[in-house]
Amino acid sequence: IFKQYPCIFRVDNFYEMFNIAQVFAIQPLPRGKNVAIITGSGSIGILACDELEKQGLILAKLGENTIQSMRAVAPDWVSLKNPVDLGPSQMITLNPALKAIFNDINVDSVLFLFTVPRLPLELLGVSIMPSLRIIKNLSSKFKKPCIICVFGSRWVFDFILKPALRFQIPVMARVKEAIMAFKMMYKYNQYLLSL
Q1: Running DSSP on this structure, what letter comes out for residue 79?
Q2: CATH of domain 2-194
Q3: Which positions carry the signal peptide feature in this UniProt record (predicted)?
Q4: Is 131 helix (H, G, I), strand (E, B) or coil?
Q5: For residue 173, what are the contacts with CB-CB under 8 A and spacing of at least 6?
Q6: What is the pTM (predicted TM-score) of this model?
Q7: Which residues fall within 8 angstroms of residue 124, CB to CB, at 6 or more apart?
Q8: How many CB atoms lie within 10 A of CB 1?
Q9: Shortest CA distance to 62 belongs to which of 37, 77, 82?
Q10: Which end of the chain is more exposed for a tag (fewer CB within 10 A), N or C?
Q11: β-strands 34-39, 58-59: how paired?
């Protein structure tokens, strides 16, 4: 019955329902299927790529200008092809990478996989607020949705969640849900464009 109605989407549980509804409520609809992934862990980025493929979305091919912009601030060992694996340099390269990726015409959605553990966050007294402000401004400017997926303890999740909600940036613990949200938003946008 769900297939008969183009704007009714099936989810598997309440977590998916509420998380995906939240993304619809506070993020712009993607124009296409191309997703950029920013991560601090290459292995988590690859898992997200696998889920993208399962959901029928596309790993965005980043433009040369995007890669050059990131290369100007990133160490040589950082992988700047999508998924962008900033590794331990994440705290200094994240904001320039976000700006370059949102500005890329080949990118329709941005998935940020936050993988920094609790101890460095506490020891360094890191604030995520400047990055969240940049995400909010760029998402609004370029009309591209962004979802943050947090890998780590409940403390790390809350460290991101509380300030992210102030900037209306959705935060999830499961990559599958984030990618499902992008897929459903894309399908909904295609339906609206067909009217």
Answers
A1: B
A2: 3.40.50.261
A3: none
A4: helix
A5: 149, 150, 157
A6: 0.93
A7: 91
A8: 6
A9: 82
A10: C
A11: parallel
